[in-house]
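Translate structure to sequence.
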């Protein structure tokens, strides 16, 4: 890859620490086990927080993407989103293990999640700047693999430096869960430390550029034009609808995986960290491996193969009762998590008109978030009604299956 491509890919390494440590493996489990009144209500509360964040992302992402296109300010908007994510992630430190701190924890994670997801709009829209059309899959896949490696590295540092040592070399109070809360501070610093190269390597166009007011007006006009044009581009519309469902399933899986493992199999924080490290190894290998062959196999076929595998393996994960078997199935599932997302990114980069790439990646984010409230809401509602985390997690499989069914109707390589 070129120097610009490596600088772009390194941002995946930087920002993947947030979904890995905060949304999935550590802070999510900490909230359910130590902050919320009990694991089941913690899963439900986390679900409603993700629902609220999903609505905000759905409303903001296409508009801000279009504004970035019109104003030529992808870099500054990526910087702002990165700072917001880092700051509110660091503030999770103040969420002590007591139900009275639940609202603070949920608010911090919710705002950080919005900042993270909006940042990916501007980050993903830079992909056509660093890779030619015939190498989109390779660059996207290798970057996604690097992201899993970054999440793995941050988890490993969390385990070795913060969670495992007793007594803590940093003087962290285990009785007040400071060794766990400190992982959020680590993620905030991690994003700042590794997220800057893309901001130097891919500058915005030089002045003169339209002012923010003009960019906003032009951006709103652009997103209106893109939306009005979707009926004339049924292939793009079908892809966005397909992604709407299967990404909702994937996001719900990521958001509740550690909560499920903690509540159903009684995993403690150290075991969850080890589980997360192992899962990131298989996920990273899967993303990088499929990235090497995606340009030959095709992004559409890569997505369909990954979804089919996750549906089959996910069914086993929901019903299995043996912890060792749960571990084995989850690690195999990890192989297919990255390719489904990476291939989606490269598929959109190939479909989007170059002059409207941020607006289309805004729609791309919208398609993953406009029903982003639905997956967590359905999971939370089913969990609350049945009192069963297994029944709640089974709803993820429905979203994956619907997304795969719609994806079968999408024609490969057709912009319209």
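Result:
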């Amino acid at each position: 890859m070129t120097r610009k491509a490596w600088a772009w890919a390194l941002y995946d390494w930087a920002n993947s620490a947030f979904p890995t440590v905060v949304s999935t493996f550590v802070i999510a489990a900490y909230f359910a086990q130590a902050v919320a009144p009990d694991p089941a209500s913690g899963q439900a509360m986390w679900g409603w927080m993700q629902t609220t964040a999903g609505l905000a992302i759905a409303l903001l992402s296409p508009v801000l993407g279009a504004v970035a296109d019109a104003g030529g300010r992808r870099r500054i908007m990526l910087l702002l989103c990165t700072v917001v994510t880092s700051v509110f992630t660091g503030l999770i430190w103040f969420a002590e293990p007591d139900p009275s701190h639940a609202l603070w924890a949920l608010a911090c994670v919710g705002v950080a999640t919005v900042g993270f997801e909006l940042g990916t709009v501007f980050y993903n829209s830079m992909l056509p700047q660093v890779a030619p059309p015939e190498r989109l899959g390779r660059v996207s896949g290798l970057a996604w693999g690097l992201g899993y490696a970054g999440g793995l590295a941050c988890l490993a540092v969390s385990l070795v430096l913060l969670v495992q040592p007793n007594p803590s070399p940093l003087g962290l109070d285990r009785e007040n869960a400071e060794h766990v809360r400190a992982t959020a501070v680590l993620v905030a610093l991690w994003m700042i430390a590794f997220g800057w190269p893309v901001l130097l390597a891919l500058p915005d166009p030089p002045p003169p550029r339209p002012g923010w007011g003009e960019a906003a007006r032009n951006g709103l006009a652009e997103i209106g034009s893109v939306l009005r044009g979707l009926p004339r581009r049924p292939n793009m519309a079908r892809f966005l609808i397909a992604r709407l469902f299967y990404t909702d399933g994937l996001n719900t899986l990521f958001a509740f995986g550690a909560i499920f493992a903690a509540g159903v199999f009684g995993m403690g924080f150290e075991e969850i960290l080890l589980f997360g490290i192992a899962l990131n190894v298989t996920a990273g290998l899967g993303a990088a491996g499929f990235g090497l062959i995606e340009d030959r196999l095709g992004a559409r076929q890569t997505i369909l193969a990954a979804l089919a595998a996750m549906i089959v393996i996910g069914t086993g994960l929901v019903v299995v009762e043996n912890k060792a078997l749960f571990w084995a199935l989850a690690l195999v599932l990890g192989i297919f998590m990255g390719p489904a997302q990476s291939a989606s990114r490269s598929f959109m980069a190939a479909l989007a008109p170059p002059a409207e790439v941020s607006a289309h990646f805004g729609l791309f984010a919208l398609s993953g978030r406009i029903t982003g409230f639905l997956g967590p809401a359905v999971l939370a509602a089913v969990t609350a009604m049945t009192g069963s985390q297994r029944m709640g997690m089974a709803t993820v499989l429905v979203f994956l299956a619907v997304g795969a069914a719609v994806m079968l109707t999408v024609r490969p390589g057709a912009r319209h």
